[in-house]
Amino acid sequence: MEKLTYPLLSFQLSHEAVLGILVGTPYQVVEANAQKLRTTLTDHLSKVYKKDGDYPLLELDSPMLRMVETTMRPTYRFINAAFPLTNKVKITMPLVYGEGEPGVFECFLPLLDESFYCYDIGQLDNLARHFISNALDEKSPEEIYQLAAYPTPNLDIVTLKVKDDVTFSYSWDLRQEPKVLERLAERYPYPKAVQRNLAAAPDAAWELDEYVNQVVEKLMQQRASLLVVGQSGVGKSAVLRQAFRKLSSFSKKTETVQSFWRIQAQRFTATSKYLGEWQETTEELVWELETINGILWVEDIARLLREGGKGPEDSVAAYLLPFIQQGKLQITGEVTPQELESMRRLLPGFVESLQLVDLPELPERSLGIVLEKFAAHVLQGHKIGISTDALATSTRLLRRFYPYESFPGKSIRLLGECVSEAIFHKKTEVRKADVMSQFIRRTGLPELFLRDDLLLDQVALRNFFNEKIIGQEAATAQLMDVIKVFKAGLNNPHKPITTLIFAGPTGVGKTAAAQALAQYFFGLGQKTSPLIRIDMSEYQHPSQITRFIGTGKEPGKLVQQVRERPFTVLLLDEAEKATPAIFDAFLTVLDEGMLVDAFGRVTNFRNCIIILTSNLGASNRPSIGYGNRLPDDETYRSAIGKYFRPEFVNRIDHVVVFQPLLQDSIRLIAQKELDEVKAREGFAKRNLKITFTERVVAHIAQVGFHEKYGARPLQRAVEDVIVKGLAKWLLENPAVENQALEVDVDEGGAILIKSMGINSII
Fold this sequence. Notes:
Rossmann fold; 5 domains; five-stranded parallel beta sheet
């Protein structure tokens, strides 16, 4: 007799419950103790062996256990949108590994149902973290917190005695595990125990029965491969999941052999290390699917055209096409209309081989029914109610601020986030205020913009901008007009909130105005800065447009940042220095508020304020003056009109002209910079109250003046003249605390510090 050993991972869930996972097999058992766990699994393996003459194949020499720690931020994902939670989570995952062949380590992550090979043991932890991060990235926050709650396991061994002359049968059936499929994909539907523990959003396709039946008919009766086509949020995934559950139920009732497998496009090539390996793996996967009558669900099927080769013609999609056309592979997936159009253009034969099921957005009445059913589901499953006001508020906010996504998906996602917050804070109901707070955290928009019953305080608005922007009354008035239009809900929902060109000499407050606008619009809830600033002087050559917008596979700097922060002020600094090719590509953004790449991926700019800064028209004028002669606005508009193409300028909503600063404005800016110095940590921890005399303000305004660079040298003057002197004095007087310091300057520019009636000169 030959002895086979299997690694057994056991988790002590409670005093009388131990979970055992037989690594490398689909078997999981819960028993009272570890001894019963081993006995139960040994008996089961023996029965299977006696009945079928077969056993799970696992060649793992001296298995070892390693706990791998990784840190990640749980994120809610919905099609192309991602909404990360505030706090990061540390997760420690058990990794079981051993040498299968000399120099080749076979590695398993049992809790994630992942496996991989490692050829350099020194890179094991890094490789494991890569697979852990990829797997967790696709899971909901609820699933991640459940995985983080598992106790540290123990590694044991289960032994099976078999005959020496045992042979394997390669005639596949559902009792045998398809090796490549198990490694790259996951079975669907999930077990009921797993479904119950998923996110607050249910696994249901309410009000979509007609489309579920279409999918079932095409998959079962016509044996077709198909695509479900619809905008983000209409319920494409829900329709496919419901169809697979129907087909699975029918398969069990009729005792027919059929299985369903869910895979991500990048998994086809993720484990390939040498030329031709992913093609070989793909052929094995197709063969296994054909043998067990399996249907493959590719989650992001449009990405198949980007995986594998340099272009669509040598991609995974192109490689799969003959198998689909010959009927050896039945495949399904979901795409947006933009992705479908892109696939038709790049690889028309692939789309022609698939049947289409068009899924429109739900009508108003059906949407109301779906939200009521969702609320009932949450109440039953989580004992948390959702008020009628909360449902209505979520619909109203999403309809206005997320017009580019579709119902019911965007409602389910927002309400799901609110339910998760309620679970975390042990609340029993989600109210209107909870929806409002969650929306503010997601977007950064103040409550003023979200509630129609709150009136705009125009005096407070003017004071806010006058405090941030000094000496630019006309420009400030135009920015306030933007806010008034947005508050009234009269901005075009199919374009960016507004597109502006800030014109004027350098150092007069253009960047400060953009920062103030970002803070007022989106600065309330977001943890990252609501201002995206890109220096356009870095993109002076046409070839650099790919670095700005992106290549076929990778997004550029602009696209990446806007996808991460869709509610933002986008500041394109020194726009005239960039290649004109960038602005040609930008026409669609200004016109429709979206940018579609070659593969149909959409980046939305409809919740952005787009600002371009320019010095055009200011080259022959002083940027700061002590007189009253100011350049006229038409000078700047004329220069902008001559430089940019007419079709680009026509898509700009407003040209905001910033005038050269006058003497009074320079003094106010100097005072503002000095006031900010008072709040620095070195003074606060010593409880020192700093006062600057008028002579200091006048001195900084004088030495910080520069005709070419405007007010920018003021900050440098404050650092060089004031801050360095104060730092030197504090280091020489370390015992000074709880005092009032008066900072002055003499006629020669020396800094005078008065403390407790004693004058010091620096």
